[in-house]
Amino acid sequence: MRRIVLAIHFLLAGSALTAQDSQTFDHSIFDGLLRDHVSPEGLVDYDGFAGDPDFQRYLELLAEARPASLSEADRLALWINAYNAYTIQLINHHGERKSIRNINKTLGLFSGKGPWKERLAKVAGKVWTLDEIEHEIIRKRFSEPRIHFALVCAALGCPPLRSEAYLGEELEAQLDDQAKRFLTESPLKNRVDRDERVVHLSRIIDWYRDDFPPGSEGLGRFLAEFHPPGPERDLLESGRFDVKYTDYDWSLNGSGGS
């Protein structure tokens, strides 16, 4: 059914498959892939992606993208989708089914580049590493802390992968929803202990602390935006709490299909 819908879409467009028109980029293929191969909990059927020819078609579209012609929101959506898509491609390229940290690793050590420095992501006519997409493009050019809840590094400790593509016109709502899900629906990663006045946070916030508002008050107000009214939110808004970081699970975020 997905392929029929996509075929109709492109026929109605009056042209063969193209990467984008003058001001947009078409993520409909990736959107369909995510809906088919990602569970509501964010677990990924890596075998499903590997066996789906539409995945390669989407990667080919990314290679032809022209980010400079897009709005800022569309550019950010493009790079987030590219990072997540090529993380899946990296896992499947190496046939890894236990942990992304096993990639390019010998005798317990990363051999030279490690998984995030492998040059495999063809986007906008250039081949990037995942590190370059995250640090040189997304973090440096957009100054958006919520991206840390959208970029998914194939680990259970990561935020859940959305079962839909990011789109410029929906990006604000999508990023807010990702932040809410990660901060309030994953108690092993993030939770507020109002009795002990301790906020337990994912290591992601520790690793990228400079990307979030400074000080306990700044961080607390930021986190409070994604919590419903109540004692937990009140504690966050007060800024008077200790922070403890939770353990990070590097196991692959694969579903039973992988």
What can you tell me about this protein's structure?
With 258 residues, this protein is mostly helical. It has a domain at 2-170. The chain is 43% helix and 8% strand. The protein is built from ten helices and seven strands. Strands 5-6-7 form a three-stranded mixed beta sheet. Strands 1-2 form a two-stranded antiparallel ribbon. The chain is globular and about 50 Å long. The two termini are 23 Å apart. 36% of the residues are buried. Residues 7-22 have low confidence and may be disordered.
Low-pLDDT ranges: 7-22
* Helix/strand order: HHHHHEEEEHHEEHHHE
Broad shape:
globular
Main sheet: strand order: 5-6-7
Index terms:
mainly alpha, 258 residues, two-stranded antiparallel ribbon, single chain
Entry summary:
The chain has helices at 2-13, 28-37, 46-50, 53-63, 72-93, 130-142, 171-184, 203-207, 215-224, 231-238; strands at 105-106, 109-110, 121-123, 126-128, 191-193, 198-201, 242-245. The chain is mainly α and 258 residues long.
Spell out the blueprint of helices and strands.
Blueprint: H1 2-13, H2 28-37, H3 46-50, H4 53-63, H5 72-93, E1 105-106, E2 109-110, E3 121-123, E4 126-128, H6 130-142, H7 171-184, E5 191-193, E6 198-201, H8 203-207, H9 215-224, H10 231-238, E7 242-245
Parallel strand pairs: 6-7
Antiparallel strand pairs: 1-2, 3-4, 5-6
